[in-house]
Amino acid sequence: MNRQSRRHQSGYLLLPVVITLALLASISYLLSHDSALHLAGSRGEADRLEARYVAEAGLNHANWQAQQANCTAYPSLGNQPFGNHSYSTVISPTGGSPISITASALLANGSRYSISRDAVDTFESPITHTLVLGTDPGSDVLLDKFYQNQNFGNFELQLSALLTWTRRSLLQFDLSALPGGVRLIGAELQLYQLNTLSLGGSLTAHRITRSWVEGTGQHRQPERRHLEQL
């Protein structure tokens, strides 16, 4: 009875050891599996981030090329090398403005990423367009109390240095002569002097924010308040 009892006791003692080893093996497996998943997730996130950078490089490349194309025949880029990776781009529409650009990146390990940018404005190379009053539909008028009925058209625009005799010239250029869809980036006004003022004087330019009609500037004393009424 004593020997049999000892054998049973030995068996009971081995069972907890086996269970403990199984638990340790399970925990070790779970830890290694979790680490593998974490590494795989980190690697996947790194791939996505790298692919995004490559796609953004393609996006900027396509935008740069579109800006050089003078708003027509935008090229698409296919399999452009970027280090060990590559990108391709598509522009739609292929002419005019604005446009949409899509760039797709392909990493060396097969990871892919696409990015799009909509409503991208494109511009032609700057050009100079000259508008000459008298030869285009523009308008001009001289506000002068002594010239109320002949103060526009072929009449000379004048300046006066006399404080009691204020003269103001209004100029209006018709921009309909410019090509459609253009964006103005600057303007320069050129005036030709016919006579020299012996008393000296200064010339200032102001923007008129209201419309006016040539030949209707019938002001007796065209001071600043009259301009504000236009």
| Unreliable parts | 1-12, 220-230
Number of domains: 2
Biggest β-sheet strands, sense, barrel: 4 strands, antiparallel
In spatial order, strands of the major sheet run: 1-2-3-4
Organism: Oceanisphaera psychrotolerans
Transmembrane segments: 12-31
Protein name: Type 4 fimbrial biogenesis protein PilX N-terminal domain-containing protein
Keywords: Membrane, Transmembrane, Transmembrane helix
Question: What is this structure's SSE topology?
Answer:
Layout: H1 2-67, E1 77-82, E2 85-92, E3 99-106, E4 112-120, E5 139-143, E6 168-172, H2 224-228
Antiparallel strand pairs: 1-2, 2-3, 3-4, 5-6
Question: Can you walk through the features of this model?
Answer:
This protein has 230 residues and is of the alpha+beta class. The protein has two domains: 41-122; 126-230, no CATH class. Helix content is 31%, strand content 18%. It is built from two helices and six strands. It has helices at residues 2-67, 224-228, and strands at residues 77-82, 85-92, 99-106, 112-120, 139-143, 168-172. Strands 1-2-3-4 form a four-stranded antiparallel beta sheet, covered by helices on one side. Residues 1-12 and 220-230 have low confidence and may be disordered.
